[in-house]
Amino acid sequence: MIKATQFLLAGAAAMALAACATTSEAAATPPASASATAVPIAPVEPEWARPDPKMDAFLDELMAKMTLQEKIGQLTLLTSDWESTGPTMREGYQQDIAAGRVGAIFNAYTAKYTRELQQMAVEGTRLKIPLLFGYDVIHGHRTIFPISLGEAASWDMEAIEKSARVSAAEASAEGIHWTFSPMVDIARDARWGRISEGAGEDVFLGSQIAKARVHGYQGDDLDAVDTVLATAKHFAAYGAAQAGRDYHTVDISERTLRDVYLPPFKAAADAGVATFMTSFNEYDGIPASGNKFLLTDVLRGEWGFDGFVVTDYTSINEMVPHGFSKDLAQAGEQALGAGVDMDMQGAVYMENLAKSVEEGRVDMARIDEAVRRVLEMKYRLGLFEDPYRYSDQARQEATLYKPEFLEAARDVARKSMVLLKNEGDVLPLTVQAKSIALIGPLGDSKTDMIGSWSAAGDRKTRPVTILEGLQARARDGVTVEYAKGASYDFDAEGKTDGFAEALALAEKSDVIIAAMGERWDMTGEAASRTSLDLPGNQTALLEKLVATGKPVVLVVLSGRPNTIAWADENVDAILHAWYPGTQGGHAVADVLFGDYNPSGKLPVTFPRTVGQVPIHYDMKNTGRPIELGAPGAKYVSRYLNTPNDPLYRFGYGLSYTTFGYSPATLSAASMGPEGSITASATVTNTGDRAGEEVVQLYVRDLVGSVTRPVQELKGFEKIMLQPGEARTVSFTLQPRDLAFTRADMSHGWEPGEFQLWIAPSSGAKASIPVTFTITE
Ligand code: BGC
Q1: Which residue among the candidates 312, 341, 411, 448 is catalytic per the annotation?
Q2: Residue of the nearest CA to atom 10 in ligand 1?
Q3: In the annotation, is 425 catalytic?
Q4: SS3 state at 173
Q5: pTM, to two decimals
Q6: Half-sphere exposure (CA, 13 Å, Cβ side) for 720?
Q7: Distances in Å between the alpha carbon of 465 and those of 225, 448, 477, 587, 594?
Q8: What is the pLDDT of residues 71-127, one digit of tens each?
Q9: Ligand 1, residues 453, 521, 525, 528: which to mutate, most atoms within 8 A of Cβ?
Q10: Ligand 1 atom nearest to CA at 345
């Protein structure tokens, strides 16, 4: 029973509730003209999919010559033995190449090695079909950029596209044709280690970044030798793994799938992504690699996707332990039938499909369709003309680690860093800070700088550590000394060896920089945690450093949001630096010394405690929102021991300058079905340094045929302002921008009332929303 007396129906809250009550009656009736409000999810034809009669004739002729075994070979992708990115290896992959049993290889690179393997396929097999070389080029190939989540924090689409462009240039110069990137999984659970690999929690930001990355990798022309095929992965909803445990079950509604998890995939498809990769999880009880709804009905049927679909690693084999297939033969039939074209590493197609065809359980037309898709990509890459065009030693030597690539990596790294706290303007470091104590396990660790999934990145010699970066920058008699002090290893908890040395250094210094966080492989695949605290004995040392009374700057290197509430209360400044890449140490120095004014904003919510997870800014209001209760009221949606609010909100990040926002204004108070509204606000640099600000547009749809989030990002713009400079930033919205999956599962918008904010973050409570309506 609702205890009405518990609610404090005062002021704005009461008005909001009243408004909801009135309009919800109206919303109970379906929109008068559903078709006028529907927004079709139309397929967008990519440039590379243009008709090519010459290609068709070539492939018709080639396929007419192929045996069933040769066809199945084209649907088989195997890892080389250079490295392993999963639980299995396959002995004898070279014999498989020579026998035409494999059409694609991953985890093999360099012009020399890819040439050798290519030669086996082209000179050793009957039809001379070239191999396709794939690799996980996720945030750089040799020159490593910040991890993907860090790049997302830049909110800078040009910088993100540039990172993908450089990655493609380096990877393609080493024989790679195809990257297993971008990972576009929305992730709202920081326990899940793979949160580090994507663009964070938001649908809109994630979709923009998906487009930028696809374009960066593929350019405008797949035939250009410095571009690579991109892969939208992992299809779909992998980020919703229960309890944040990797590979775990996903159980979400189709509405959440369509409104939250699918949009970045659709954005990638619209940007022309050449391939899709399935995911390890099930969706609605059916493993993704056997899920016809996802792979055929949505991907091909609704979106008109023309490229090919590869599995994630052995996910066809895994349908057996999932309990979906009785054996591998059935798993292969289910995967092919659902829409998987290429089998990564499991060799299920290789070992079972021929028999399935002979026994009539697989349609030959479906095999031909899959083979055709794979061969088309090889053709479009120009491999039939010259199978070695990517394996070019001279180009490799001229391309890797170009100075401009290193400069781009440094630039993206400093753009990715988020200043979370800066009390008393302790940063940027002043000329008075003559002696700097750098303390912590991440202060001088090359291995950690480049994070996980760092492709062919060298983690031993190339990365610039924070110590090296600070020392290179320190001038005018400034000294930087280092003591490790603590450890991030889980079993270091409770130990204090190293503390005394660190404290002695701290005592004799003017400022302490604590470089703490997680070891590089504590995020990424198979790296879930049940605690988000700084691991080991780092916080214990941090407490002692704070107790010295010296100014303490915490620099966090990590691939996920960490629970740093104690630090937030007690240290002077906090910079979240992710894993910043090959040039990371220089980038950290650029920010700490103020050569670069930080501009990053969080692409994920930082919880106060792991108990709040999953937490994201665009949650629903519930029927008992906390704002409606008196302070401490019982029957509202809250925790007894922790506020509902996170520690740092999505979109949050400080600068060394300050920005003022005018109230937002609208071009009109309402728009019709074909209309639009322009919302504007003037942003002023109110401090004394030039700086960049990410201006964010949020909207709330007050009443819907299904409940709507309390806020949704619908636009953003990153602008540079000189001290005192003001700029008016405008966003134009059409009804279609407010579309969602409605009660009847159609995709469209609904007439009604909306609130809108133009703000520096999702949590800018002071900024008062303006209201507009969409009329019928
Ligand atoms: C990962 C994929 C990756 C693949 C190939 C899998 O374990 O989930 O993201 O692309 O390995 O390395």
Answers
A1: 312
A2: 180
A3: no
A4: helix
A5: 0.95
A6: 5
A7: 33, 9, 21, 10, 18
A8: 999 999 999 988 878 887 778 899 999 999 999 999 999 999 999 999 999 999 999
A9: 525
A10: 5
